[in-house]
UniProtKB/TrEMBL annotation:
Keyword set, alphabetical order: Electron transport, Heme, Iron, Metal-binding, Signal, Transport
Cytochrome c-552/DMSO reductase-like haem-binding domain ranges (all copies): 53-349
Keyword Transmembrane in annotation: no
Signal peptide range: 1-23
Protein name: Ethylbenzene dehydrogenase
Lineage: Bacteria, Pseudomonadati, Pseudomonadota, Alphaproteobacteria, Hyphomicrobiales
InterPro entries in UniProt: Cyt-c552/DMSO_Rdtase_haem-bd
Keyword presence, Heme: yes
MF-aspect GO terms: heme binding; metal ion binding
Length: 357
């Protein structure tokens, strides 16, 4: 029997819904979905967020308002943006623009201390997966695969899979209510792939949170290529020092980067650094296999992020939304993260992608 949603005021932060009485949920006024129209193009747009001509001059720009995040310029965690979409016989593109006052890439670096030791910067207020001070900017879309997530398309958008107040995760967990409900996540994490032209292709299922077995609850990554996983991994401290550094030996805060490409890593040489220098704590390689099918161009300039997503209309993975029937409407949600691990500003309304002929 389906587990149903309880009443929670729509003005509360993200991760609103938990199981409960359907009669109470029905008392709320459903949010009106927002349509996003994809225009058909004869020539593929250039995958470059700096390009504003071509289809992006004429494609309808749907305005959205995202709410209840953290760190955005209005002090309330709100921001505004636009979404455009285009497609051809094989590919879909989405261009997302939104306000963000700062470029955030200082993701938990190691810092050399006055006594020569190394320490990772951490958010002192983080009570569990909730870093809002030393993180990165991100953007995430969730697609309702085969309309399987109950209430997603009609009323709740991605809030249908958010769950607050669970032990160990102060901002809640992400999972669908019932087995068989699946979402496709396009997750642009700038430090862990966005800078390199990729979004992390992930998915959402009904797995509940378990601190030891499933700390990310229903959120999972698509399969990587066998023998070549790619992706990202934490750089460990070995005998009190970071295990790797960039071969150019540039501190991240002095012309280097807050990510370390796998091909640039060398053994750490502590003599290259002085107190106050920062180095990356994350090792990054291109996503591979199903996990690597989403290309992006992401650029921040003058208080705005522009992100262009590119993906084949159809893929071989059951964990991807398949845009196989262009006469159908595809439900999705979108969220923006300003230097935040999970406290994102979200568009509350369900979004409907419509392919124009």
């Amino acid at each position: 029997m389906r587990r149903l949603f309880a009443t929670v005021a729509l003005t509360l932060p993200v991760c609103l819904y938990a199981s409960g009485a359907f009669a109470e949920e029905e008392k709320r006024v459903p949010l009106k979905p927002i349509d996003v129209h994809a225009v058909k193009v004869a020539a593929a747009p250039v995958l470059d967020a700096a390009v504003v001509d071509g289809v992006w001059k004429t494609a309808p720009a749907t305005e959205v308002k995202a709410q209840k995040g953290i760190n955005f310029k209005d002090g309330q965690g709100n921001t505004t943006g636009t979404i455009q979409a285009a497609y051809d016989a094989k590919t879909i593109w989405l261009r997302v623009v939104y306000d963000d006052p700062t470029l955030s890439v200082r993701r938990m670096p190691y810092v050399k201390q006055a006594d020569g030791s190394w320490k990772k910067l951490v958010d002192p207020d983080d009570k569990g997966g909730d870093n809002n001070k030393y993180y990165e900017d991100k953007t995430a879309l969730i697609w309702n695969i085969d309309h399987s997530i109950f209430g997603f398309d009609e009323k709740f958008g991605c809030q249908a899979s958010c769950h607050a107040g669970e032990p160990g995760k102060p901002y809640g967990n992400k999972y669908t209510e019932d087995e068989g409900e699946l979402g496709d996540i396009w997750h642009m994490k700038y430090v862990r792939g966005g800078f390199n032209g990729q979004a992390d292709n992930q998915y959402l299922d009904s797995t509940r949170f378990d601190a030891a077995k499933f700390p990310d609850a229903g959120r999972k990554s698509d399969a990587s290529a066998a023998g070549n996983p790619g992706g990202y991994a934490d750089i460990k401290l070995v005998e009190g020092k970071p295990e790797f550094m960039s071969k150019d030996a540039k501190p991240a805060n002095k012309g280097g980067t807050y990510w370390l490409k796998a091909e640039d890593k060398v053994a750490f040489d502590d003599s290259k650094f002085v107190p106050g220098d920062e180095v990356s704590s994350i090792l990054v390689a291109p996503f591979t296999g199903d996990r690597g099918v989403i290309k992006v161009s992401a650029k921040w300039a003058e208080g705005k992020w522009t992100i262009v997503f590119e993906r084949p209309l159809t893929t071989a993975s059951k964990f991807d939304v398949q845009f196989a029937d262009l006469s159908k409407v595809y439900g999705f949600g979108i969220a923006f993260f300003d230097n935040a691990q999970v406290r994102h500003a979200q568009v509350r309304e369900p979004l409907h992608l419509i392919f124009d002929k």
